[in-house]
Amino acid sequence: MQNTNQYKVLVVDDDPDITELLQYNLEKEGYEVTSAENGKEALEKAAKFNPDIILMDVMMPVMDGITACRQLREKPEFRETYILFLTARSEEFSEIAAFDAGADDFITKPIKPRALISRLAAYVRRGNQQTGEENKVIQIGNIRIDRTSFSVFKDNEKITLPKKEFELLSFLAATPNKVFNREELLNNVWGTDVYVIARTVDVHIRKVREKIGEDHIKTIKGVGYKFNTD
């Protein structure tokens, strides 16, 4: 996928005015768009539509966005899908819950279409850059990271990571033993044009550790994190 009109977007919101607004602006930019009214319908539409990007409200009837996101991430075909939450709720615990469920990004309503389009364009650019630049394998001890296939192996056993967890692990492992603070990790993994709170890094580090083991990523208290080879 090299340009926006090859990207498919699923908009999930129970407010028809919002879905209509987003669909109009996204289609104008060349995206292929479909919509769903709740999390349950989103799961059904995603299975048929196979979106590259999902824009999803948090609070919805039938099934909320957090539950839908978690269920999507359990399916192999959606582990690399870009999921961005749109919500009127700005409490930190809602944001942490969204990232814990596997979200890539989180923005609060009222939605500014131009800002959203800019954010999605940045995601498209990063995806295209990664396609051409990250063709290599990182092997450190019993961990092997294949950046061409987004695969991680521990003792030759494959471990499945959602895209942001993979990118975070890959970034740290590319420069082992170098300590990165949270701001550096946010800027390099999420991008400077995406606003997420610093605790997002902590959530993703915890989830990566759960899958590859506690010893590989070390916390440097008061500073940040590093991929440990000691």
UniProtKB/TrEMBL annotation:
Q: Does the keyword Repressor apply?
A: no
Task: Tell me a GO biological process for this protein.
Answer: regulation of DNA-templated transcription
Record-listed 4-aspartylphosphate modification sites: D57
- OmpR/PhoB-type domain segment(s): 135-229
**Domain of life assignment:** Bacteria
Task: Name the keywords, alphabetized.
Answer: DNA-binding, Phosphoprotein, Transcription, Transcription regulation, Two-component regulatory system
| Record's function text | This protein is a positive regulator for the phosphate regulon. Transcription of this operon is positively regulated by PhoB and PhoR when phosphate is limited.
- Protein name (database record): Phosphate regulon transcriptional regulatory protein PhoB
Please name the source species: Adhaeribacter swui
- What is the taxonomic lineage of the source species? Bacteria, Pseudomonadati, Bacteroidota, Cytophagia, Cytophagales
